[in-house]
Amino acid sequence: MGKRANNPVKSVVTTFDILQTLRRLDGAGVTELSNELDLPKSSVYNYLSTLEQEEYVVKEDGTYHLGLRFLDLGRYVRERDDLYETARPEMESIAEETDELVNLLVEEHGQGVYVCRVRGDQAVNVAAGTGHRVALHNTGLGKAILAYLPENRVDEIIDNHGMSADTEHSITDRGELKDELAEIRDRGVAFDREERIGGLCCAAVPILDLEDRPIGALSVAGPTSRMKGERLESDLPELLKSAANVIELNLTYS
Amino acid sequence: MGKRANNPVKSVVTTFDILQTLRRLDGAGVTELSNELDLPKSSVYNYLSTLEQEEYVVKEDGTYHLGLRFLDLGRYVRERDDLYETARPEMESIAEETDELVNLLVEEHGQGVYVCRVRGDQAVNVAAGTGHRVALHNTGLGKAILAYLPENRVDEIIDNHGMSADTEHSITDRGELKDELAEIRDRGVAFDREERIGGLCCAAVPILDLEDRPIGALSVAGPTSRMKGERLESDLPELLKSAANVIELNLTYS
DNA sequence: CTATGTGTTCATCATTCCCGAACGGCGGGT
DNA sequence: ACCCGCCGTTCGGGAATGATGAACACATAG
């Protein structure tokens, strides 16, 4: 897991352990959390009390919930990047034109994070929303990004996160993935044919900065029935590429 | 500031102090933060290192940024509540019909938090977005909520947060506010005539649960020039009330 | 009226973090 | 080139501080 810091502040770690557990088990109580985390009840209680006092956690009838204050931090994070603001209108017009689901993903710490998602009229329903984190190796978006990362970085990411197989079409071999990444660089487009979710395909293009480093990726996703032939292999890629181009241009002048 | 917990975990407090400061001063370095917070550099450094290791903070060329992981927590918080999902479509149709800015606010810890915002075609630009926190006493949304809170709770909130005057129209007298809250209960609608932002007016209605406790408030906001007469005092309130009704109904059956 | 489940309080002790001071690298004056 | 100032980073010792289990108050159920 990489190198570790010299003086890790333990309480910070436990704080976020508690918060993350609380996200999973919304409305949990002190005891439930203490069991889940193998921490003494009193410790959990102290943390929760402090968090409540600081308004990061809300207590309702003895059950705890994450506080709205996180919206603040989360919103800020999203808007920090011009990427969101710049990409959003382009995504909307793609959604309107294709009626499908349009996604924007960025890489952080070797994982993909959905930053924005716009739904066309026929858009499939996928559970994941803004902020959701996914592995990079088995999504079109992730591969589009990986293709433009330096090779040692790609290796590092695979070392750290492995190559899980979410469906039978997932790529699980490192060599195979690298071959595919090379193809993606050639074509400028990545495809995902049911690699992450059965029945779901997508086309994805990277958004690059002036030095061709990936700052994100843009995709159109839909059911396999609609995502095939000309449309998947040529129409959508063209649409995405020109959108990515506009975004890249706008980003460099701001 | 209310009663304090018995064993406040100091590190939790400083952790979030650092994070909040980092939100304000995005891209700050160790020294800048340490000055801002009156903490030794090394302490700040230790915290930041841990936060980085835990992926809540990203370091770029020695400058720090909030990590996208907060999107995760923030998104979750917003979606926790059915309120968002239920209200969103109603808000969109109001935005379309009025061309103005439609807001959804909930109360937490005596403050108002914007949970959702939908923009009509003519919508004014207001800086505040999702997650933004405001005082309750001088916004239409806040007053709509206060009007349906028990009186002792209202007093508590004023005690804790005071009654700041953001514009010359802001209400700063406790008695005056209470009179207005009574009026709001009578009418079922709250108005904000440039009380928080000069030139900006709004009409707001509360969203109530079965026991008439406020779970949020809905508003239409626009420039004073468009928000007056019939439209402000009767058309918009009617529209808002019926939307709130639909939301309230949907919420009770889910 | 016990029995088990909460959330909460409290005092103890040693762990853990606080913090000053020193290091090393970078960049910009002069 | 030099030095100075500024930055992020490292280190270690001492003491504040959070971890902890046991006990408490309260509810709910058998």
UniProtKB/TrEMBL annotation, chains A, B:
One GO MF term: DNA binding
Residue ranges of every copy of the IclR-ED domain listed in the record: 69-253
Start and end residues of each HTH iclR-type domain: 9-68
Keyword Transcription attributed: yes
GO aspect biological process, one term: negative regulation of DNA-templated transcription
This protein's UniProt keywords: DNA-binding, Transcription, Transcription regulation
InterPro entries, alphabetized: GAF-like_dom_sf, HTH_MetabolicPath_Reg, Tscrpt_reg_IclR_C, Tscrpt_reg_IclR_N, WH-like_DNA-bd_sf, WH_DNA-bd_sf
Top-level taxon of origin: Archaea
The keyword Transcription regulation belongs to this UniProt entry's keyword annotation: yes
Record's protein name: IclR family transcriptional regulator
Organism name: Natrinema versiforme JCM 10478
